[in-house]
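Good morning,

Both structures are done.
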Amino acid sequence: MKKIFFLLMVLGWLNGHAIEPRNLLQKQAGPVQLRQMLLEKTQWIKYPAYTDRTGWDKLSGSAKAKLIKDGEANLKYEWKLVPASAYLEYERSGSRTAMENIYYANNKALSVLVFAELAEGKGRFIPAIIDGVWQFCDMPSWAISAHLRVQKTGRSLPDMNETIIELVSADMGSFLSWTWYFLKDEFNKVDPVINRRILKLLKERILDPYMQRSDYWWQALGKEGVLVNNWNPWCNANVLTCFLLLEDNKDSLTAAVYKTMQSTDQFINYVKSDGACEEGPSYWTHAAGKLYDYLQILYTATGGKINLFGEPMIRKMGEYISRSYVGNGWVVNFADASAKGGGDEELIYRYGAAVGSEEMQQYAAYLFQRNNKKLDPVVARDFFRSIESLSTYPLLSNTKAGLADFRFTWYPQTEVLFLKNNSGFFLAAKGGFNNESHNHNDVGSFSLYYKEVPFFIDAGVGTYTRQTFGPERYTIWTMQCDYHNLPMINGRAQPFGEQYKAGNVVFDSVKNRFSLDIAGAYDKETEVKKWVRSYELQNDGLVIKDQFELNKLLGANQLHFMTWAKPDLSKSGEAKLEKDGKILTLYFDPALFEASVAEIKQEDKRLSTVWGESLYRLELRAKKQVLKGNYVFRVK
């Protein structure tokens, strides 16, 4: 049952999600044209060879000393075995970190050692690198325990009879392919068996299974109407890299590259034409951001002949990250996204340069300035981004910093709105449906920021465990409707499912008014005929209205507002919020509602790092049960 639920979660059959068969990549070239476009092996690689010390000195620039210093700190790193018990802990307690912490520590050590050697070029780090590579070759799988449950066994221990390509195994495949490309001659000087073993495993774990299978859920091949999220471009970008670096046969290479194009087209087809990232800004880096990586690699490998960077939709997907930034490190965080962040400035800059977005490039420079223009190369298992970032630093330093200048950004297909005014208010509101990628049951919810301080919030998500993506997902409070800024209608909350969605979603840019009927986001047992919620951003604040009609009276309506500041209810009809020297007050009719506050202790580090020790839920319980009515709330 648990495995079935997980498959439903990741496959997400979405009968109500209109998928547009754009097939932009396949329209650029078929297999015959692609074969002619692909550059000969290694001609597409723009980086200096390992022995080109002048080239590497130029590429690493002022980061060279830091790269070498980090490598030196790992020269005596003790490579860690990932025991069976660490894999099985995922099943026993739900912990992902038991396995991941060990694995990722090895990832990081190998990454910094490889880049230290590339920067220095003296062979000093080669023995430690070989030890690390050998350690990874000894692993039964490069997939993490949480992702191995898609195996036919349904278990978290790697099954020798099945190869799983997922996010981390694809990352490692790409990383080891690049490591082999740059250092193969140095490995041969020690023992040719090192290269033979690397190549054998890359063939068995990436090249062969990708071509033999079309049923990895993230490939989205041969299935209609399935959820296609960040896994698709993330995995395909890495697989594409492996083939380009390793495959010598031109016909086989063409077939593999074309298959990645067919698969990646499914992601582009799935994303709505407005370009919004339904997973939120935290996931943009590995959704639209990974699509950019894929497109850039393919562009380079074909000598610029396959080029989607002029497509308006690709630009819109990029600019989502600059539009969702509120200020002072805060971002709009629907779904599982965190409320803090901003993005990877090097990636954002490169994406912006590719699509000709000055907005993205200036936003990247703004993030760079927020980091005090600190040159701190982030070296990780994502080899492509690590090496690309080295050449981006000088460009960031010479770019004017700035934030996106807009009054509103409306994503009509995704039903997400960002709306600002000159008084310092930033409203984010959403419609949508309750089976979006990384879904929370939150149709109709909103967030409100004042002078770059969040007041009415989306908490986000806690540390990922087995429960996060299993049948217990919606027992977690952060996923539930009643911990978002929404009503409990007739005492009932929104359930999970693609059929639970908003209706009549309208944004009036003249009146600064966003309205939608959220009745369809509740099940039939709620007995709600209509519940039209509207948000109107005025100069001095926000007006929220609920106009409703019920079929039956089952229980009291209760309105919830999630806040960072503790609401002060000392004055009748007012909930005063004070945070970081800013004050907002929510006004309500005390004749209609009984107000109370629930404190929600934040014991999960992923949440407490953002919000501190506590969050609060303002609860307004209707004193009378009526079949029809209107509620009005004002925030000033």
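Second structure follows.
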Amino acid sequence: MSVGSVFAYPALACLAVMMLVPVEAQAQVAGSGAAGMAGTGSGMGGTSATGADSGATGKSAGGTGHGAAKGARQLAITPYIEVDQIVTAELSPGSDVLTWTQLAVGVDASITGRNNALAASVRYQKQIGWGRASNGDVLSGVARGYTTVLPGLTLEAGALATQTRVGSGGSALSGGTLPGTSRTNIYTVYGGPSFKTRAGDLNLSADYRAGYTKVDEPGAYGGAVGPDIFDSSVTQVADLEAGVEPDVILPVGLGVGGSFYQEDISNLDQRVRDMQARGLVTVPVSRTVRVVGALGYEDVEVSSRDALRDADGNPVIGSDGRYRTDKSAPRELAYDVSGLIWDVAVMWRPSRRTSLSAHVGRRYGGTAYGGTLAWAPNDRSSVNLAVYNNISGFGGQLNRVIDQLPDDFEAVRDPVTGDLRGCVSSLNGGTCLSGALGSVRSAVFRAQGFAASYSTRFGRLDAGIGAGYDHRRFIAREDSVLAAANGTVDENWWLAAYLSGRLGREAGWSTSVYANWLSSSDPLTGNVTGYGGSASYYRMLARRLRASLALSIDGASRDDTFDDDIWTASALAGLRYSF
């Protein structure tokens, strides 16, 4: 088993536990800054105790999020085993042809009930190479859910295991993750309780989340893609709010809140810590519109230690290709901003199918803005948009994106490699992960961007498209080994889409496409473009036995004239038996 599989066990264990004990999905955008100070603080979740709930940002719009199917319980758990034969042809710059036999075991699960919900897809596969083709194993999966422990107390968790291709400078592309390609494994898991109650006229809410993220490549990096590659981090988030709704004491609602965010990154002991306290005033403008004003104080710090140096003063690189941390060196600040912050948010919810929030204010020493839109025009389609602005590391950002996933999705997988594509299939909530995976630098960053998705179901067809933009400005000390990363800007435009359908009761098909446009101000990274598509067909041979055929093509190009474009095409024929 590869090194990547060893580090996968925490995520795998969480996914397995979640199949037995589902965990809760909140109705807020996961601390992405979408609702600013007015209701979410800096956490993954959090609600406004002032009556200005930041709106069901996709999980409750349309009434199909958790808690919508009151009294109805649906349970579907489908384990399976699979045997595939894969042929991959290098189209450019070479012409090599390789063959694998792929053995896979997995489970797809969906649980929907009054007090519990879970969506999960977990798959482990062993790839056995023929001739010069190398062996490999891959764990991939995504899970999201909740369980109600007591009235007002829920537990929530999520996990992700996926692969990407990492280039120089930390740029990351999806697709092309068969053995022999540059494959990097990414694992993350998080969870924690949420509590809501009333004490007389006072609304109280509290949330806590803890998460762990690991980036691992089979074999050592050897410095091939640079030592500033994320290793692992532990994230902690807490939010607390108390308040009264409008017309209880005054015509306006009043509230107070506080939040805490900390991410400890193993690379050079980096730490980002964000603490804030705030007061909130909620003004009901009409039956469907509320304005929330917040005023508070925030303290944000980013700190780290320097790398261990050799006798010549050069930084020491460990066997994993990353800088070794000098544990004896003092922790030094790279970013320190504190002072008054303010925020004004407008929240509009004209019906159970539509929710909109937008805010602008001062945070991180400058102007901050964001917003969310969730619109379900009917029971068969959903539109979601989130605009975010925050400071975190790679692990914290990935936890936030997973927290936005709904708890009733179906995974969209590459039909050849079996890995997750950039989005999941769902009519609820944000459904795409691509924006968080475009760069795996270890340095802390200020992230700004948006993610939009549209999903629909008509007749026998399911379709979805997601697009977004992620802008990261990295933060590091000028006198540290990461000085070159300070002020570096990585940008990622991404697109992912899928379309699938059934051909009667015994057959079906699916297609998917993706594209990433990555650019960096780092001259060693440059611009990278990745794109690909796939198509598959299946037919039931017996009640539980399915035969599949699939084709895929993946490409990558760089703006460096010394590098040729890379193109590969793959084909698969396989059998799956479901229990």
